[in-house]
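TICKET: design request
STATUS: open
ATTACHED STRUCTURE:
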């Protein structure tokens, strides 16, 4: 699994944190369009949801479709929109591929990254299968360095999987979502739903993000493991 960590106040990202937070907040406010669809539609647009308190199951396995739509919502259309890079499990020109990804991110374009769940997902993801099968999609938003210029480089990524890490599971249950997800989420007001999505992505600290945005320390000289299609599910 790619090593992951949470952003610290001293870290520096490109685009900057303030710009990213503004872009994410505006996208959440606008997608889906206010007053359209159900509250459940709005929440599941952004988040891959648990079905119960213990996160023992998931509402869907649509990470590929979700990655595309949230990546589009988080991208500058004027700069070219969402970028879907070539297969990262192919070793040919892998360093150049990552350099190209960085260039897109610096132009306010989100980048979808697809890989084995056990490689790109969170350590507690319910989609990590014992046989290594399945895939997951995360959305890159920025490059960065620990503590600023010269620090350890990372990519900042949004992982919609609510089961991915302990902090995400705990944050999910803070706004009356304990119990059956469909019933509980559907009972939220649109304002509460938007607030909960923002809590998961943005958190409460203006210098950091919520539990679904994490630093990924990627070896840009090494290809991703190949995705196994054995078994079922993502």
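STATUS: resolved
RESOLUTION: sequence designed for all positions
ATTACHED SEQUENCE:
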């Amino acid at each position: 699994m790619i090593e992951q960590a949470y952003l610290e106040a001293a870290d520096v990202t490109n685009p900057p944190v303030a710009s990213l937070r503004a872009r994410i907040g505006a996208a959440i406010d606008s997608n889906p369009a206010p007053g359209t669809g159900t509250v459940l539609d709005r929440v599941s647009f952004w988040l891959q949801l648990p079905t119960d308190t213990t996160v023992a199951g998931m509402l869907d396995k649509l990470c590929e479709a979700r990655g595309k739509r949230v990546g589009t919502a988080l991208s500058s259309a004027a700069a070219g929109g969402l970028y879907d890079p070539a297969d990262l499990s192919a070793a040919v020109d892998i360093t150049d591929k990552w350099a190209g990804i960085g260039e897109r991110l610096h132009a306010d374009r989100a980048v979808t990254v697809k890989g084995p769940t056990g490689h790109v997902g969170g350590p507690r993801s319910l989609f990590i299968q014992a046989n290594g099968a399945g895939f997951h999609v995360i959305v890159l938003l920025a490059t960065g360095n620990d503590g600023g210029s010269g620090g350890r480089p990372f990519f900042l990524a949004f992982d919609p999987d609510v089961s991915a890490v302990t902090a995400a599971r705990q944050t999910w249950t803070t706004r009356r979502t304990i119990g059956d997800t469909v019933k509980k989420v559907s009972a939220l007001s649109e304002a509460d739903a938007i607030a909960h999505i923002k809590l998961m992505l943005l958190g409460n600290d203006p210098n950091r993000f919520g539990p679904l945005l994490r630093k990924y320390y990627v070896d840009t000289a090494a290809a991703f493991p190949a995705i196994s299609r054995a078994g079922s599910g993502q």
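CLOSING REMARK: The mean pLDDT is 90. Helices lie at 17-30, 39-46, 63-73, 94-106, 117-120, 166-172, 181-186, 190-201.
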